[in-house]
Amino acid sequence: MKKLTPPNDDAIVVFEVCIARVRDADLKRRLQSCSEEIGEAAEEFNQKAALAELHTIEAKDNVANAVSVDEMKKVYTGRMAKKLAPGRIYYDRIMALPEHGRCPLCSQRVVSTLDHHLPKAHFPSLAVSPLNLIPSCQDCNKTKSEEIPRNSEQETLHPYYDDVESFSWVKAKLEESIPVVVEFYVDPPQNCDGVLMERLKHHFRTFKLSALYSSHAAEELASIEYIARKIFEDGGSNELKGFLKDAAESRKQINVNSWQTALYTCLYESEWFCQNRFM
């Protein structure tokens, strides 16, 4: 997962901009009565997300006993996410947060939507709260669906609050076969906090990252087949190991927990791959 700079737009301001053009007088009055609860919900989210305590936030089926879940969903879809909507400026700002437009949840696919970290179907007060909205790819958004965490260990990583880029936790191991099969897994250092360790594993499972990374690794292995074989035939196993190690170090400089870093580290550390794979 990639850390993102959190959006700094106030939840109440975003909400009030979104509902500014509502023409139905009764609906607008009811929506306006929700502003205080929208602000309180955003503040509670901010405090608890930093402590991995989002599971303690109570799910609701309305906002301020005045607006239904479906009405709040429409505020998001029709008045924030929709092109030319009054709140679209905030949607676009959040979408632009990831570097290179990559989904921070899988670090692989292109951002194409916003994911509600706590689903709007159960937490309507957070439907347009910027801190609850994470730029993501469609696959991650659909895979996560409307999951509600029951404890800290079941909270997926949040790019605005969790920084897991300072240590290595995505690893890979290979099956000594042809074609080579690579499996990805979570293996944080022993001094990693216990709750964080479980959250890393939960995040990996929730977004099905092992299967995603293994698929990309298979394609990568096929693409380097020619050059790896040539290096081995021209310079032997030590030359091949050096090539793979340099590839790992190069990718590590960009993302210590990318599947590419894990893949090339796994390859250069494998005596079988460096000595026997191309014999």
UniProtKB/TrEMBL annotation:
Transmembrane segments: none
Alphabetical UniProt keywords: Endonuclease, Hydrolase, Nuclease
Lineage: Bacteria, Pseudomonadati, Pseudomonadota, Gammaproteobacteria, Alteromonadales
Keyword Oxidoreductase carried by entry: no
Keyword set includes Nucleus: no
GO molecular function (one): endonuclease activity
Protein name: HNH endonuclease signature motif containing protein
HNH domain location: 103-146
